[in-house]
Amino acid sequence: MNPQAVLELLDEKQRELSCLNDDLIIKAEEKAKTEGKYRKELRKELLILRQEKVPTTIINDLAKGKNEIALLRYKRDLAESNYYICISSIENKRLEIEVLRSKLTWLRAEYQSY
């Protein structure tokens, strides 16, 4: 692999990193929205159960077990996982870029020695 090919690959990886950074913003917004919706609906359900005089020892389990609340919790957890997966992808892309930079430095030194 010649230095020019590594430079082209490096440019491609940097563009991919920029896209991942944009994706992270979207994932963060999704994470926050799903968390907010889950908490709001859970709070409503807890208030309803309290008004119905449900014993406090089981009120959380009943509220979280309701289908609508469980679905919102699932969506919240999924959004959180996607957010952290995106962060991990960004870290991996940065590592790829560092490897390519090291390779480029090594190739340039090799080419200059000829």
What does the model show?
The chain is mainly α and 114 residues long. The chain contains three helices and no strands. α1 crosses α2 and α1 runs antiparallel to α3. The model has no long low-confidence stretch (mean pLDDT 95).
Summarize the structure.
By secondary structure, this protein is an all-alpha fold. Helices cover 92% and strands 0% of the residues.
List keywords for this structure.
mainly alpha, rod-shaped, 92% helix, 3 helices, 114 residues
Kindly report how far apart the N and C termini lie: 16 Å
- SSE-based structural type: mainly alpha
Share in β-strands: under 5%
Contiguous low-pLDDT stretches (5 residues minimum) are none
Overall pLDDT score: 95
Number of helices: 3
- Helical residue percent? over 70%
Radius of gyration, whole Å? 24 Å
Gross geometry: rod-shaped
Taken in chain order, the helices and strands follow as HHH
Number of strands: 0
Q: How would you characterize the largest beta sheet?
A: none
